[in-house]
């Protein structure tokens, strides 16, 4: 014989009940079918009683709603004649419910006894309707009232079963040879006086397990709305998948820590008789489901599943008076047990100075009263502090029988959580080492689950979530590159790049599931909201996604002001914006410090030489123990472009204008022409070489005439280039006469740096530097005579975007 239990969703509608009947019909052996209330009905019954207790008349509407649900199920299932009989019975019972609720409202009193009677009604109604539907399908079925065969104590809402008596009653009742299907309502039972008791929320699973034990069933089937016990709650972790086989112990741990698919007490009765449990999906019966047996499948992941419980409160009892005093824990747990408070998690510091306990948040006030009462004397004496309660917490647990024989699981768990800025309040490892659990903030649950799931079950794919600010020239090229490389990265590097937000100075767009990069422009235009960096940050923090990267493609002064906040929340920062790294040294150092502290990469390769690997090369030299002694460089693609095109035919003004049009200058060309841009770059190289220096420490011999230096706006500045044509022409001629070219150089030697325009003779390596190219010569202890040279395109949107792209990939390899 087997036992099949169908949960709330499985019997939630006429359509689903038909599926249930179809499944039962196909059974070749005798079957005990246990059913829950129609999905959501138990909650409605609880709501109606709460309202009645508050003397709120709208409980009547809830009862009407309950009636409606059952009527429409009856209409969808039964032939017309049967409908009338069934509806009359449902109406009768619900009228009776209204009377009971009326009494509750009048007396302003709701005992557990009455409550159990009310909330147990759902299963009575569902089993009654399903019984008639089965009869109609000619199933040889007998309806049994579980209250006649499951006997409990008087804890009406969470009753303890009297097993011996119960098993006896069940086996007698189900021994009838006349029927091959026995239908029973789950969840309800009765005490010795025959009054209705209930087995706790989710208790229909327990009913089924009790029946399975009593009749020594060959299998206990739990039919629900998902295809088994998943590696994590499938509603929160998209990548979760059903676990094929799992041990009783593992299933117990997972359900204890919140995998609601199985009610934890369910395991015990079947474990006693080693009856396998099979979790199946009523909506997809062909799916394999999860088989729970004595042995766990040894292949596959060491960690079997991750579960979590939300709405947790952490209680901390501490005080000097606890150290070395025996019996404190006993009294603490005694006080909680007396009030039937369920303890989900315990840690005790080895100093015995404090004990931490996690419980359901709804019980925290009761716990506080109970514990403070228990230790009243010690609290007055200041030996123990009043109980501290923290809420808005959750427990997350890794479960697996074989975890104990593998080192490093907890290390990996905590480092993954730490890297993603999930703060851990308390840790416990079960003495059997079948679980490692941690108390975290409730708001971090989704991120923590997904992070751990990725780390333990999807080790191949890493998702990176991008928040992109600046989608002009460079930014839009970056989005193009991300789109075109998406499949390559996924396949070859196992990285999934997802752009979650984009913003320019006018609009911003957020999509938690990722923006479709084929249509980002249209979506930003039609669905974007007014751009504002503060709101951008708030939204980003609220999404709280793992492996988040903030990408700054702007030249804006304000955006870098948000880097510290990003890094402190473990959000990596990738910037082509040079402001942060060339601002005052303390700010630069602080950002580097935050990056290390929160393990959030801060990468800005494109600050020098656009896409050229200048900073990365420098970092590698330093990391391998080398020392920079001298740098010679042409670091301005814009100035190189300008001086390469400035000749007898083209005036200086015309060339600068052209460079702007082609996107080779900063939005404000003064930044390039004044040398500030180059100063920033050499400053960044010096800082990355380990020198704490400021922009003022760099000498700048400007080639601009005084009027240009003093121009108040870009337009005025451009005018001075026109009016100063003679000055520029003289510079050009002088170089020409010396057979030299003009190059804007940055150099660093003997601890100091300077930038300025120089005459470069024909035999110099910089002489033939074309177009907008950059070149950097690093002289180091190892590269003494022949410098290490990096040369190539040093400006332009596409190469800059590819440099940013490279940094983004690097954050994924951290
Ligand atoms: P039923 O009404 O059939 O008893 P429940 O709602 O009690 O169903 O349990 C099934 C639900 O449990 C799933 O829909 C899913 O949301 C939730 N759940 C939580 N954790 C897990 C998990 N690890 N595997 C499967 N389901 C889970
Ligand atoms: N109907 C009850 C509940 O919702 C029991 C169950 O469905 O398992 O808690
Ligand atoms: Mg359930």
Automatic annotation (TrEMBL):
Job of this protein: Bifunctional aspartate kinase and homoserine dehydrogenase that catalyzes the first and the third steps toward the synthesis of lysine, methionine and threonine from aspartate.
Protein name: Bifunctional aspartate kinase/homoserine dehydrogenase I
InterPro entries on file: AceGlu_kinase-like_sf (IPR036393), ACT-like_dom_sf (IPR045865), ACT_Aspartokinase (IPR054352), ACT_dom (IPR002912), AK-HD (IPR049638), Asp/Glu/Uridylate_kinase (IPR001048), Asp/hSer_DH_NAD-bd (IPR005106), Asp_kinase (IPR001341)
Domain of life, source organism: Bacteria
Record-linked NCBIfam families: asp_kinases, PRK09436.1
Residue intervals of the ACT domain: 398-476
Sequence similarity: In the N-terminal section; belongs to the aspartokinase family.
UniProt keyword annotations, A-Z: Amino-acid biosynthesis, ATP-binding, Kinase, Lysine biosynthesis, Metal-binding, Methionine biosynthesis, Multifunctional enzyme, NAD, NADP, Nucleotide-binding, Oxidoreductase, Sodium, Threonine biosynthesis, Transferase
Catalytic function, reaction form: L-homoserine + NADP(+) = L-aspartate 4-semialdehyde + NADPH + H(+); L-aspartate + ATP = 4-phospho-L-aspartate + ADP
Gene it is expressed from: thrA
Lineage of origin: Bacteria, Pseudomonadati, Bacteroidota, Flavobacteriia, Flavobacteriales
Species in which this protein is naturally found: Lutimonas vermicola
Gene3D superfamilies tied to this protein: 3.30.70.260, Acetylglutamate kinase-like (3.40.1160.10), Aspartokinase, catalytic domain (1.20.120.1320), Dihydrodipicolinate Reductase, domain 2 (3.30.360.10), NAD(P)-binding Rossmann-like Domain (3.40.50.720), VC0802-like (3.30.2130.10)
EC number: 1.1.1.3, 2.7.2.4
Pathway it works in: Amino-acid biosynthesis; L-threonine biosynthesis; L-threonine from L-aspartate: step 3/5; Amino-acid biosynthesis; L-methionine biosynthesis via de novo pathway; L-homoserine from L-aspartate: step 1/3; Amino-acid biosynthesis; L-methionine biosynthesis via de novo pathway; L-homoserine from L-aspartate: step 3/3; Amino-acid biosynthesis; L-lysine biosynthesis via DAP pathway; (S)-tetrahydrodipicolinate from L-aspartate: step 1/4
Subunit comment: Homotetramer.
Gene Ontology molecular function: aspartate kinase activity; homoserine dehydrogenase activity
Named cofactor requirement(s): a metal cation
């Amino acid at each position: 014989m087997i036992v099949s239990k169908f949960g709330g969703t499985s019997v939630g509608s006429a359509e689903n009940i038909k599926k249930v009947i179809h499944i039962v019909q196909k059974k070749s052996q005798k079957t005990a079918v246990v059913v829950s209330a129609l999905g959501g009905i138990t909650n409605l019954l609880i709501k109606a009683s709460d309202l009645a207790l508050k003397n709120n008349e709208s409980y009547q509407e809830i009862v009407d709603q309950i009636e409606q649900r059952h009527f429409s199920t009856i209409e969808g299932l039964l032939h017309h004649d049967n409908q009338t009989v069934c509806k009359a019975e449902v109406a009768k019972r619900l009228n009776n419910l209204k009377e009971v609720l009326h009494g509750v409202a009048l007396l302003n009193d709701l005992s557990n006894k009455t409550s159990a009677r009310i909330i147990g009604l759902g299963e009575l109604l569902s089993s009654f309707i399903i019984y008639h539907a089965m009869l109609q399908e000619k199933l040889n079925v007998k309806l049994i009232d579980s209250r006649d065969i499951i006997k409990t104590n008087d804890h009406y809402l969470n009753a303890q079963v009297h097993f011996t008596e119960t098993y006896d009653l069940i086996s007698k009742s189900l021994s009838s040879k006349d029927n091959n299907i026995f239908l029973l309502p789950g969840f309800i039972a009765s005490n010795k006086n025959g009054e209705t008791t209930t087995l706790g929320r989710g208790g229909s699973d327990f009913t089924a397990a009790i029946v399975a034990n009593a009749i020594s069933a060959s299998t206990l089937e739990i039919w629900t709305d998902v295809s088994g016990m998943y590696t994590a709650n499938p509603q929160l972790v998209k990548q979760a998948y059903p676990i094929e086989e799992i041990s009783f112990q593992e299933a117990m741990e997972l359900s204890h820590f919140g995998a609601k698919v199985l009610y934890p007490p369910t395991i015990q009765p079947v474990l006693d008789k080693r009856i396998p449990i099979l979790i199946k999906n009523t909506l997809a019966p062909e799916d394999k489901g999860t088989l729970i047996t004595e042995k766990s499948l040894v292949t596959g992941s060491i960690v079997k599943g991750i579960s979590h419980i939300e709405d947790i409160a952490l209680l901390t009892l501490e005080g000097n008076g606890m150290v070395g005093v025996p019996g404190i824990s006993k009294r603490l747990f005694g006080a909680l047990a007396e009030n039937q408070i369920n303890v989900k998690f315990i840690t005790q510091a080895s100093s015995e100075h404090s004990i931490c306990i996690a419980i359901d948040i709804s019980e925290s006030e009761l716990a506080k009263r109970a514990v403070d009462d228990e230790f009243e004397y010690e609290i007055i004496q200041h030996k123990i502090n009043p109980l501290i309660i923290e809420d808005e917490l959750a427990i997350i647990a890794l479960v697996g029988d074989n975890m104990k024989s593998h080192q490093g699981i907890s290390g990996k768990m905590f480092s993954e959580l730490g890297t993603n800025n999930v703060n851990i309040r308390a840790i416990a490892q079960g003495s059997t080492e079948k679980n490692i659990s941690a108390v975290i903030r409730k708001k971090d649950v989704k991120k923590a689950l997904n992070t751990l799931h990725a780390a333990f079950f999807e080790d191949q794919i890493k998702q990176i979530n991008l928040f992109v600010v600046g989608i002009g020239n460079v930014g839009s090229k970056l989005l193009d590159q991300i789109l075109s490389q998406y499949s390559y990265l996924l396949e070859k590097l196992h990285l999934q790049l997802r752009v979650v937000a984009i913003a320019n100075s006018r609009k911003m767009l957020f999509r938690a599931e990722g923006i479709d990069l084929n249509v980002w422009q249209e979506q930003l235009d039609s669905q974007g909201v007014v751009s504002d960096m503060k709101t951008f940050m708030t939204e980003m923090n609220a999404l709280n996604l793992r492996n988040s990267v903030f990408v700054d493609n702007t030249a804006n002064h304000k955006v870098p002001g948000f880097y510290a906040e990003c890094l402190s929340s473990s959000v990596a920062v990738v910037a082509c914006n040079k402001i942060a790294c060339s601002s005052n040294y303390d700010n630069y150092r602080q950002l580097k410090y935050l990056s290390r502290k929160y393990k959030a990469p801060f990468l800005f390769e494109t600050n020098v030489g656009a896409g050229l690997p200048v900073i990365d090369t420098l970092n590698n030299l330093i990391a391998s123990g080398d020392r920079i002694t001298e740098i010679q460089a042409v670091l301005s693609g814009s100035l190189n472009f300008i001086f390469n095109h400035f000749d007898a035919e083209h005036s200086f003004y015309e060339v600068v204008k052209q460079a702007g049009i082609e996107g080779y200058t900063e939005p404000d060309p003064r930044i390039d022409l004044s040398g500030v841009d180059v100063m920033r770059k050499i400053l960044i190289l010096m800082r990355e070489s380990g020198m704490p220096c400021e922009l003022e420490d760099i000498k700048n011999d400007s080639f601009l005439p005084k009027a240009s230096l003093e121009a108040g706006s870009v337009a005025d500045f451009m005018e001075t280039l026109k009016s100063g044509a003679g000055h520029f022409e003289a510079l050009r001629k002088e170089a020409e006469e010396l057979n030299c070219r003009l190059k804007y150089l940055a150099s660093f030697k003997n601890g100091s740096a300077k930038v300025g325009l120089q005459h470069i003779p024909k035999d110099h390596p910089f002489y033939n530097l074309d177009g907008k190219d950059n070149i950097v010569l690093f002289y180091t202890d190892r590269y003494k005579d022949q410098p290490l040279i990096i040369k190539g395109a040093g400006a332009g949107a596409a190469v800059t975007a590819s440099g940013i792209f490279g940094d983004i990939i690097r954050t994924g390899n951290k």
